[in-house]
Amino acid sequence: MEENEERWCHDIGREQAANKPLLKTVFQVMMRLFSPRKTTLMFVIRDKTRTPLENLEPVLREDIQKIWDAVPKPSAHKETPLSEFFNVKVTALSSYEEREEQFKEQVAILRQRFFHSIAPGGLAGDRRAVVPASGFSFSAQEIWKIIKENKDLDLPAHKVMVATVRCEEITNEKFSSFIANEEWHQLEDAVQSRLMPSFGRKLSSILDVCLTEYDVETTYFDEGVRSSKRKQLEEKLLQLVQPAYQSMLGHIRSGTLDRFKDAFDDALNGGKGFAMAARDCSKHFMSEFDDGSAEVYIDQANWDSSRVREKLHRDMDAHVVAVRIAKLSELTTMYESKLNEALSGPVEALLDGASDDTWPAIRKLLQRETENAVAGFSTALSGFEMDEETQDKMLLRLKEHARALVEAKAKEEAGRVLIRMKDRFTTIFSHDSDSMPRVWTGKEDIRAINKTARSASLKLLSVMAAIRLDDKADPVENKLNLAFLDSKAGSTNKSSSMDALASSTWDEVPASKTLITPVQCKSLWRQFKAETEYTVTQAIAAQEASRRSNNWLPPPWAIVALVVLGFNEFMTLLRNPLYLGIIFIAFLLVKALWVQLDISSEFRNGALPGILSLSTKFLPTVMNLLRKLAEEGQRHANTDSQQNAPQAAKSLQSVAPSSASSEVTSSENGTENSSPSAHHKLQ
């Protein structure tokens, strides 16, 4: 078998022009499909230059050996040398243009070598597989069948090979030209930081120019190869520009999302319903995104922006959900604050003024304020268009919050019940019905006042002992009254009542509603009594002191003894009226001292303290009284002097100098009788 290959001299050592891929395919197929036998490979070098054949042949043989070494071999032929399959022959032909006669002679010699190839030493190699002429037809059919069935032997036509090579080269050139395109670089840089207007139209134009240039340069090549390479070029270009396209979609998505958030907040601030605002804004800005994505659409690409669109939709929904949670939390907090403001102060005031109507009033207050809050909250929730079950749960939580608020306030006040009890006791015990401070004059019934004050304090304790928001009767107040206030109950019954308080729970009152246990009530009452005992004792002492200070007269027997024993002195006074005047003046002085010293008040706290106090104030009070009397006498004297001066001036005109001088001198001395005598003499 012989194989002939023609090769130009200047193509020796080159990859494609030297048909190295073809040789590689021949080597692979020969090893896979045929058994080892010598096949002659004749390499004919065209247009041999001045380089001797002896120098060209080693280079060619070296290339062939390298191809053989690089070919993947079956396991049975991994170590088989090239010489087992091929007998390599190399010859050269001169240039036809330069040496036509010599070229023809060399061709004739080469033709004879083929004619006599089966002669000894001819081109034919191994003759072991030679087929007789009678079997040539069948052998050729089998060989052709193998060639058709083996795709490795389906070698393309020459024009296909040329088209493949040239279209590949043009493809690479146009791709490199696109990469170096300045307009593309500007687009690529711009989309990294901002939204680029008319991005899709500009990029489609650049791609269209590049592909059009490819079409022009590959017009005359094989249609199949040209189309295939054009598709490859288009895929490479689209793969290159896809990141920029994705960046543009990202800018559109982020910008649309930001505008959606602003518009959504504005709609809510404008009073629009939450659900309606979310629905309208989502619809509007999804349409806006569709318009924006259409502007960046690339004509050459069949890209779908649905994934970015879905992400935008998810981001919008997530923002709506977050705002919804925040708004609901804000609404809940606002109405809880309103309930806190509406309930805390009034409940505290009602518990402070504990009475039989305290808990009914608290229940009424709770119901009224809860209904108002629930009505407002329900109206606010209607804009969210939530399902009825969810809305009912939120309203129920608001009602529970109001109830918990009252219970917490009751527990807080229960912790200060002892202080409240003492304050109430002090208020009632130390003030009268007109809220004026009580003065213990000795006429007040301290026992009754004490009982009233303690009853009011015990009422406060019974009110604070349990939470009564369910309008159910309980025996708390009766037990406390029986144990602490019922004086008519026998000692046995009272002892049993006190024993009934030796418990940590109240009958008919759940533990969750108990604020003060019976044992704690017993301890609190004991402490209350101990701390208020001093106030009662002080009131009794003040009352006793008042009584003593008011009883300043001696006993009746002493008065009788004074009358009997002082009868003679009394008769003496009657016989001498001058003594009565002296006694009257002394009585006035003593009365004045009594008022000035306030002796009744001094002796209210006892005799000894009163005496000590009077001893320090007696002398200053006497001196002060005498000074006032002197000042009064001096003031009257000055007044009389001013009234008599004009009358004396008139008298001087009608009397003798000696008489006038006498009257003026008398007037200056300020005597009360001078003026009448002067008038008498003038007359």
TrEMBL record:
Instruction: List the keywords (alphabetical).
Output: Endoplasmic reticulum, GTP-binding, Hydrolase, Membrane, Nucleotide-binding, Transmembrane, Transmembrane helix
Q: Where is this region: Disordered?
A: 633-683
What GO molecular function annotation could you give as one example from this UniProt entry? GTP binding
Q: Which residues form a coiled coil?
A: none
Record field: compositional bias (Low complexity): 654-668
Question: Any stretches that span the bilayer, and where are they?
Answer: 578-595
The record's similarity note reads: Belongs to the TRAFAC class dynamin-like GTPase superfamily. GB1/RHD3 GTPase family.
Full protein name: ROOT HAIR DEFECTIVE 3-like isoform X2
Q: Which organism is it from?
A: Olea europaea subsp. europaea
Upper lineage? Eukaryota, Viridiplantae, Streptophyta, Embryophyta, Tracheophyta
